[in-house]
Every structure is written in C-alpha cells, then in structure tokens.
Amino acid sequence: MKESKPRKYAIVIDTFKCFDCKACMVACKVENEVPVGFWRNWVKHNGRAGGRRTQFQPGQCMQCDEPSCVEACPVGATYKQNDGLVVIDPLKCIACGNCVTACPYGARYRNPIRHVADKCDFCEHRLRRGEEPACVETCPTKARVFGDLNDPASEVSKLMNKEKLVQVINPLINTNPSIYYLEGTSLLEWPVEPTLPGNVHMPPSFWKRR
Hints:
alpha+beta
C-alpha cells in the first residue's frame, strides 16, 4: 500500500478580499493570549498609487521551508515539524532573542510574561482539534485559505494547481515561505524590511546554501 505523505500546512491569501477589518488580528490575540503591545499577525497597507485603490496584505509567520530562525536558535528550541510548522519549545527557549532578529519578516517577539520567544504557529492547538487557525475561521471575507498542500483535495492544493501564486521574499534571503498570495488579485508591491543579516549569529553552513 502506498504511504501517504505527511501534512504540509500552508495558507493562500487573496489580498483583494481583505478590507483591513483586523478581525484576524483580534481573533489571534484572544485565542493565543498575546500580551498587550504585541501581535502574532498583521495587516500591512499598500497605499494608493496611480489612482488604484488601497490594498492590504494580511500576514503572519511564514512557516518557511528553510527557516533562518531554526538555524539561529542556539539551543534547538525552535524547530520545524514534519507538517511544515515551525514551532517553539518553551521548555528549551532561553529568550535570547537570536531567532527574533533572524526572522526576515519580523514575525517573532519575546513574550514579556512567559519569558520565551513567541510567534504564529497556525494555532496548532486548534489544528489538533480538527479546527482551522483562528485568523482563517474569523475572516468575514475568507481572504485566507488554509489547508494541506499534500492533500490534493484541499482548497490550498486546488488553488496551487489552478491559480498563479507568489511568495513575498525578503531581498536578502529566500527562506521559501509557506504563505502564498494570489497574483491575479494583488498589486504585489508589498515592502519587506531587510532584517537580515542583523545582530544575529548564523552558522556558516546556512549562508553557504544560498
């Protein structure tokens, strides 16, 4: 019998459907008890240009296939699972902040209450219950589509085969993110802050692969 592939979670975002209601941000904050002043996800603005309407870019941890945060963690607290999720072991994390600086998307922060690094994990606790991430379930226009890329019946797989999808790549490093955007509905002019290399220690082998 042919073995099934492990799950490979991803999100496809249709920026044309986002109107910056911030329901995704509120849902994430409540669901994951994110401290005041910090966020696990965001909505970036692309201002009007040439008479075109303002567009919004929902985003969060990119769950990269080659995550720089994993390479940067000195104690192995940040690691990538077989299902594609990049997660943090709070028992190992020493809150050094190396992974925070290593993330080219600014998706991590140091939790001042728990004293560990924190970020989006696609609401892994909800996934274990068979539920979607809070941001996906809450969005009133369904701008985010969540699913398993290795499941041909999933909506993300169908979009991957049907539509032309793009990734937002940091200009300094391509970590192969698992957040995709529909090209046909986006202006694709989202700025990505080049946060690498910064005050972060990366093993030489990481840079040699690039």
